[in-house]
Amino acid sequence: MKFLPLVWAGIRRKPVRVALIFLQVCVAFTLFGVLQGMKSGMDRAVSNIPANVLYVGPAVYGQPPLTMADLGRLRSIPGVTAVSFNQGMLTFYQKPTQPVYVLGIEPNDLMRTILPQEFIVRATDLEALRKTRTGILITADTGRKYGWHIGDRIPLTSSTLQRNGAATWTFDIVGMATLKNQDEAIYVFANYSYIDEARALNKGAVGHFYAVAADSKQAAAVSDAIDNAFANSASPTHTESFRESAQEQLQSLGDLNFAIRSILSAVLVALAFSITSMTMQSVRERTQEIAILKTLGYRNRTVLFLIAAETVGICILASLVGLALSWLAFPLAGKLVPGLSMPPVVMASGVLGAVLVALVGVSLPGLRAARLNIVDALAEEP
Amino acid sequence: MAFLRQLGMLLYLNLLGLPQRLGLACTTVIGVTCAVGVLVAMLAMSVGARQAAMGDVRADRASVLSVDAVETDRSDIPRELAARIANLPGLRRNRRGRTIAVPEVEVYVEARRKASGSAVGFPMIGVGADYTDYAPELHLTDGRMFRPGLREIIASNECAHRYRNFNVGNKRLVGGDDWLVVGNFDLGRTAGRCFVYGDADTVLSTFKRNSYNAVDVMLQSPEAFDELVNAIKGNPQLPVRVEHEAELAAAGVQQIEGMLKFVSYFVGAILALAATIGAANSLYALVDRRRRQHATLLAIGFTSAPIIASTLSESILLAIPGSVIGAGLAWLFFDGLSSTVLDFSFHLAVTPGLVAVGIGWALGIGVISGLLPAVRAARIPITVALRTK
C-alpha cells in the first residue's frame, strides 16, 4: 500500500502514453468480451434447451403428411408423456411480397410448457387465443411492419382454400407473442382447430408433432422408438430433440472455437508486444529516477514490483472497462447473434488474460530496471 | 522543391535512427501484422465461398425463369413452355443438332450427416438427360450417368463425403420411392454444396408435378444473350425472363458471403483500432526522442510542413511492412484451408485483391496513427526544447 503514491506518480508521468495504452487494452478486451460472450451465449442457449421435448416431423420432404390419426400411436409409445401438434399455413397480407406464416397450434396448458422452446407467450394471451376461434397472436415485429394492433381484424390470402372456396382467411388479433431466434416479421399463431375445420382439403393433416419424453436421458431412445413405430407407415417420421437440433445449428456455423482462439491470440500477442515496447521506453526515460530509488535503498525486487504494478494496474482497469463496453454492445450485437451473455467466468478469464499480457509485457523492461547498475545509470545522460 | 528536398532528408534521418529504436518500430509492425493478418484471413473465407459458388460460371450460360420468380425454386415453367423455350434464337446446338436447353426441377430431399446422423435438407435437381451438353465440367469419377425414365441419381463427391448413403450402389428414399445412386462426380471448380441430379421427368411424375422450375440454356456466344432477351420480349406468349448464370450463382452465395464479410470487417476494424492506438503511441515516443533535433531544424529555418510530412511518411512506411507480413502469414497458414459454414464448404483463398485490401488497411492505420504525433513534432516551443536536455 505504501508504494501506491510512487506507482501513481509513475503512471502520471506521461499521461498521453498511459491514456493510449489504456485505450488499446480497452479496445482489445472489448473484442475479447464480444467474441467470448458470443461463444458462451451460444453454449448456454443450447444447454438451456430441455432435451426431453422432441420434434416429430416427416422423414422425407414431399411424402404424405402426418395426420391426427397418428396422435394415438404416438401417445402409446412407451416413454412419451404428452403430445401436441402444429400445422403451418403460408399466407400473404395484401400482396405476395408480404408473406405471413400462420402456425396453427393447440392453445392448451401443455403448449405452455413446450412453447418457450420456440416462442414466449403469456398465459393471458394464450387464454385469449383459446377463447377466440378465429384469433391469432402476432409478434411485435409483424405488428410494426403491417401496422396491426390487438383488436384488429385482418385478411390473409393463402393457397390453402376454405370449404366455401375462399382463399382469404380472416383472423382477429387477440394477443402478442415473442419468437426466439428467428426472423419474427413473418410468424403469427392461430388455433389449429379453426384452420383444420375451415380448410377444404387435407383435413386432419399435421405439420409436426411435439412429444414430451418422461426422462431427458431416454430422449434418444424414445426418438428411435417413435421413428421405428412409423417406419412402415404411409408417412415415416424423423424425430429430434430440440436440444439436438440446436446443437446441430451451432455446429453448422463452422469451427467457431478455432476462429475465436486465433483472433484472440493475435490480439493478445500484439498487445503484449506493444506493452513491452512502451514500458521499455518509459524505463529508459526514467533510468536516473530508478537509480536514485536504488541509491535510497530500494531493492531490485521492489523496483521490479513498482514497474509491474503500474502496467498491471492499467491493464486490469482497462480490461474491466473494455469488458463493460462489450457488455453494453450486446443489445446491438443481439440482433445478429441471439443470446449473448457474459457469465462471471468470461469476466474472470478476461481480467486474467489482461494480467497475463501485462506480466509478459512488463517482464523484459522490468528486469532491465531491476538489474540497473546505479553508477552507470547516474552517469548516463538522459 | 525545397519542401521535397527537406522532406527527403528528414525521412532519411528518421529511418537512419530507427535501428536504435527497433522496439518502437516493431510495435507498429507487429500491431499492423496482426490486424491485417486477421482481416485478410477472415476475408479469405468470403472470397473462398464466392469462388466455390462461382467456380465454373460461364458467360455463355443462362437460365430461363418464370417472369415473376425471385429465386429459382419459386419459378415455374410448364412442360409445353419449356419446349417452346428450346426453339428460341441464340441457343447453341449440340452434336446431334438439338439446341442446348435443359429443363431443371428442384425438389427438397433429406440426407443424414455422416458423423452425427442428423438430418439436413437440400434440393435434388431433376435435369434433362442431355445435361452434360450444358455442363461439360461434370466429370464422373465413379459409375455412370443416370438413365431417363428410371429412378436413378448421380451425386457429387461432396455428398458422398459429407452425408450417408451417397455412394454408387446405395439406395435412397425420395418421394416415397427408392432411387439408386448410379454415379459420383466432380463439378470442375464449383464446390460448396452437395449436388444430386436425377431425370427431370421422372422427378415430375414422382412428385405429381407438371412444371419445371427453370430451363438452363447454353448460348451461341455471350453476346447472344441480348438476342435471346429480345426474342422473349417480342413474344407476349412467353411469360419468362433470362438470368445470366453468374447472377444466379452469386445470389445463391450472397447470404453466406455477406455474413462472412460483415464479421471480417467488424473484427478487422476493432483490431485496426487497437493497432492504430499502439502505432500512435510508439510514434509519440519516437517524436519525443527527436525534440531537440526538430527544434534545431526549426531554429535554422526549416518550416513545420516537412517535419509533419516526414513523420507521417515514416508512420506509413512503418505500417506497410506489417501489412505485407500479415497478408503473407495469412496466405501461409490459411490459404487453401478447407472450411464449412452453414453446410457450405469451400477453401479459403488469399487473393492478390485481398493483399491489396490489407495494404490499403495498413495505409489507413499509418495515416491516422501518424497525424497527431506529426503535428506534435512540428509544434515544439523551440527555446524550451533546445534548453532542456
Produce the secondary structure layout.
The complex is a heterodimer of chains A (382) and B (389).
Chain A: H1 4-12, H2 15-48, E1 53-58, E2 66-67, H3 70-75, E3 80-92, E4 99-105, H4 109-114, E5 119-120, H5 123-131, E6 135-138, H6 140-146, E7 153-158, E8 168-176, E9 178-179, E10 187-191, H7 192-198, E11 205-206, E12 208-213, H8 219-230, E13 237-241, H9 242-252, H10 256-285, H11 287-295, H12 300-333, H13 344-370, H14 374-379
Helix pairs in contact in A: 1-12, 2-9, 2-10, 2-12, 2-13, 10-13, 12-13
Chain B: H1 2-17, H2 22-54, E1 61-66, E2 77-78, H3 79-85, E3 101-112, E4 119-127, H4 131-134, E5 138-143, E6 152-156, H5 157-162, E7 171-174, E8 177-187, E9 196-199, H6 200-206, E10 211-212, E11 214-218, H7 224-233, E12 240-244, H8 245-289, H9 291-299, H10 304-334, E13 338-341, E14 344-347, H11 352-378, H12 382-387
The secondary-structure class of chain A comes to alpha+beta
List the total number of helices of chain A: 14
Q: Biggest sheet of chain B, in brief?
A: 10 strands, mixed
Radius of gyration of chain A: 31 Å
How far from one another are the termini of chain A? 30 Å
Principal-axes geometry of chain A comes out as elongated
Low-confidence segments of chain B, given as residue ranges, are none
How many domains, in number, for the residues of chain B? 2
Helix content of chain A: 40-55%
C-alpha termini separation of chain B: 33 Å
What does it look like?
The complex is a heterodimer of chains A (382) and B (389). With 382 residues, chain A is of the alpha+beta class. Helix content of chain A is 54%, strand content 18%. The longest helix of chain A is centred in the first third of the chain and has 34 residues, at 15-48. The radius of gyration of chain A is 31 Å and the shape is elongated. The model of chain A has no long low-confidence stretch (mean pLDDT 85). Chain B contains 12 helices and 14 strands. Chain B has helices spanning 2-17, 22-54, 79-85, 131-134, 157-162, 200-206, 224-233, 245-289, 291-299, 304-334, 352-378, 382-387, and strands spanning 61-66, 77-78, 101-112, 119-127, 138-143, 152-156, 171-174, 177-187, 196-199, 211-212, 214-218, 240-244, 338-341, 344-347. In chain B, the strands form 3 sheets. In chain B, strands 1, 3, 4, 5, 6, 7, 8, 9, 11 and 12 form a 10-stranded mixed beta sheet that branches. A two-stranded antiparallel ribbon of chain B has the order 2-10. In chain B, strand 3 and strand 4 (119-127) form a beta hairpin. In chain B, helix 1 (2-17) packs across helix 10. Chains A and B meet through helix 2, helix 9 and helix 10 of A and helix 2, strand 3, helix 8 and strand 13 of B.
